[in-house]
UniProtKB/TrEMBL annotation:
Signal peptide: 1-32
Protein name as annotated: glycerophosphodiester phosphodiesterase
Pfam families, per the entry: GDPD (PF03009)
InterPro entries: GP_PDE_dom, PLC-like_Pdiesterase_TIM-brl, TAT_signal
């Protein structure tokens, strides 16, 4: 399975430092701010090149154990020792950035139990998909704060429903303050991995995500190339826009090979993800980003029976462009694992997650998004030996 990718942090750190000083961060022409500003916010002038390898990224917090995108989920992930904590961002009607995977909050909040919001249930097309429910862009932050978060997949994670109603929907600013406080308490920065969700769709509503995100990153000292944050999006133009606003490290997310980013669809750009993972596509991405976040299937495709097949050359090809790889998403439950790592017949029971992590780590990836940061950390530790 091993691709022979160079996992030497030292080698890539040297190359990375050279590149970061020139082209890779040069799209916006932004310059690094004084180191003392970073220190004020607990940044310590850190570099993503110095994160533990493989880096364990807590996907939506510790979402295997708590309702996702809540302070409780982020706190548990941090307490487990996750290297980086992920946020997905969508806007409210009054332009505040809040942490939700979907702008449709039907499945992750108790909005349906609020009769005062019943009339706001509606059907709309988001990135070409028809959805019926309640949407963050139809709620002010004050409205949204009256709701409580709940488990998104209770059928798979019944135990997590114990925590339904315990936390509100956090704003990104609240998360930045939490990260700052936890960073001070721990004496080291709390790394975040922040995704802009549906950026073209929201810009069309007059709710552009990148400008308020950049403003918050500047306010909390996370706008520099050494800041403890990654910015990510499935839409390359969102990453390009961010590159003009801040110097924080950036990652282009890549979905299935046959898909097209929604901004490409809107702009009539015919390229698919299959084009972007070719050397020319990766070279283009490397002109404005420092990494890619591919679906795990782009690293190791599955065969017709759902078992892992032969790794692609993506790790080698991306590293050749000095791009790091943060693929998504590893989960412990059988239903989410490749068929060859499932154990028993209960889809919600845990399978051989350690075995699957090991095979993915052997490809030379730099990090991985996982709902189960504790499992990922043990697997990463085993892998480092
Ligand atoms: O952002 C990495 C991964 O989270 C992408 O998938 O749909 O879970 O945001 P999604
Ligand atoms: Ca995400």
């Amino acid at each position: 399975m091993t691709q022979g990718a160079d996992r030497s942090p030292g080698r890539r750190t040297v190359i990375g430092a050279a590149v970061l000083g020139t082209a890779a961060l040069g799209v916006g022409g932004a310059t690094a701010a004084p180191a003392e500003a970073d220190e004020r916010h607990g940044g310590h002038g850190s570099s993503y090149r110095d994160l533990p390898q493989p880096t364990v990224i807590a996907h939506r917090g510790a979402s295997g154990y708590r309702p996702e995108h809540t302070i409780g989920s982020y706190q548990l992930a941090l307490d487990m020792g996750a290297h980086v904590i992920e946020q997905d961002l969508v806007p409210t009607k009054d332009g505040h950035l809040v942490c939700r995977h979907e702008n449709d909050i039907t499945g992750t909040t108790d909005v349906a139990a609020h009769p005062e919001f019943a009339s706001r249930r509606t059907t709309k097309s988001v990135d070409g998909v028809s959805l019926t429910g309640w949407f963050t862009e139809d709620f002010t932050l004050a409205d949204l704060k009256t709701l409580r978060a709940k488990e998104r997949i209770p059928g798979n994670r019944q135990e997590n429903t114990l925590y339904d109603g315990r936390w509100a929907v956090p704003t990104f600013e609240e998360v930045l303050r939490w990260a700052e406080k936890e960073g001070r308490r721990r004496g080291r920065p709390v790394w975040l991995h922040v995704e802009t969700k549906h950026p073209t769709y929201f810009r069309g509503l007059g709710l552009g995500l990148e400008e308020p995100l950049a403003k918050l990153l500047r306010r909390y000292g996370r706008d520099r190339q050494g800041s403890p944050v990654f910015l990510q999006s499935f839409e390359p133009t969102s990453i390009q826009r961010l590159a003009k606003l801040v110097s924080s490290p950036r990652v282009v997310l890549l979905s299935g090979a046959s898909t097209r980013p929604w901004d490409f669809v809107q702009a009539g750009d015919p390229r698919t993800v299959a084009d972007l993972v070719k050397p020319a596509g990766l070279k283009w991405i490397a002109s404005f980003a420092q990494g890619i976040g591919p679906t795990l299937d782009l690293i190791i495709p599955k065969d017709a029976s759902g078992k892992l097949g032969t790794p692609t050359t993506l790790v080698r090809d991306a590293h050749a462009q000095d791009l790091i790889l943060h693929p998504y998403t590893m989960r412990n439950e059988n239903t989410f694992l490749p068929a060859d790592f499932r154990r028993g017949t209960d889809p919600n029971a845990y399978g051989d997650a350690f075995g699957a992590f090991k095979v993915y780590f052997e490809t030379g990836i730099d990090g991985i998004f996982t709902d189960n940061a504790d499992t990922g950390l043990l697997a990463a530790s085993d892998f480092r030996g």
